[in-house]
Amino acid sequence: MRILFLVIGLAAGLCFAATVDAASPGKLELKDGDRVLWIGGTLIEREQIYGYWEAMLTASFPDRSIRFRNLGWSGDSVWAESRGMFDAPAEGYKRMLAMSADFKPTLIILAYGGNESFAGPAGLERFVAQYKKLVDDLRKPGVRFAFLLPVDMEPASTVDPDLAMSFNKGVVAYREAIRKLADAENAPVIDLTRAAAEESAIAGRSLTTDGLHGTAVGYWALAHRLRDQVASTREGVVLPLPANAHPPEPSAASADRIEQMRLAIIAKNELFFHRWRPQNFTYLFGFRKHEQGNNAVEIPQFDPLIEKQEEVISALRQGN
C-alpha cells in the first residue's frame, strides 16, 4: 500500500555508514560546540514532545557536542502574534528575542511562512519585510541562520480537498521568497516539502492528525528527510519506528541507545519548556506578578535539572 509522504517542517536500532569528511554544498552543518535554537510555529513547538528531529541531528554528529533549545509557539508568525498572551504581540516578540539572547545560540533555525501564506499574494511583501526584521533582531556576532520552508498540507480524510489544494498552491510563493531571503543571508534552506510515495511498515498511517499537525510517525519520517539535508559526520542514521502515533512517556524503558537518547531529549525539552513558559506565567512575570511574583526566584532551579539531562544525552551520544 502506498501512502503520500508529506515532506514537511521530526526499523530498529541505530546504524551508521561511512564517515563524511566535509560539508556538502548547500547542506546544513552543525559544528562542535553549537548551540542550536529552533524558532517557529506549531511544527516546531510539537517537535519537542517527540524529539525525533533533535535525536536525528544529535546522532548524526556523535563526535560533536551540540545543544538544542526549542522556542516554538503554536500558531506563531513572524510578528509573534501568538506570544503576547495577555500582553500585546510586541511584548511576546520582545520576550522571544530576550530568550534567544539568553541561550547565546550559534545557529538559529527559523520556520515561518505557513500561517502567513493564508494572506495570499497581498500579504507576501509585508511578510518578507517582517521576516528580514526578525532575522536582524535575532542577529548577534557569530550567529548563523538556517531556514526551514513552510510545509504542504497533507491530503487527509479530515481535510477539505479544496482547502488543501488552495493552501499548497498559495504557499509556493512564500517558499520562493524565503529562499531569496536565505540566499541573501548565505544561509542553508531546509526543504522538507516535496511529496514522495513510500512503501514501508507505516503504510496506511497518516503523517498528520489534520493535514498539518504531525503525528509521531510524521516526525519520525521527516527526521530521515532532515538527515538527508545535513552534512553529518555519520551518514545513514536510522531511528526506531514509533509503536503508535503518540509520544511515549519520557520514563519509558528502552534497550535501544538512540531511543534512550530521544527519551532523554524529551525530558530535557519538557524541563526547558517549564523554564521559559511556566503555566502560571501571568502570576510570576505578567500583570498579576504583584500576587505571586516572589515565587519567580524558583524558575532558575530548572537549570541544573536541564544540565543533568544534557549530560545524559551527551553520554548516550558518545555510546556510553
TrEMBL record:
Record bears the keyword Ribonucleoprotein: no
The name this protein goes by in its record: GDSL-like Lipase/Acylhydrolase
UniProt keywords, alphabetically: Hydrolase, Signal
Originating organism: Caulifigura coniformis
Signal sequence, start to end: 1-17
InterPro entries: Ester_Hydrolysis_Enzymes, SGNH_hydro, SGNH_hydro_sf
One Pfam family linked to the record: Lipase_GDSL_2
Limits of the SGNH hydrolase-type esterase domain: 50-220
Molecular function as annotated in GO: phosphatidylcholine lysophospholipase activity
Taxonomic lineage of the native organism: Bacteria, Pseudomonadati, Planctomycetota, Planctomycetia, Planctomycetales
Top-rank lineage group of the source organism: Bacteria
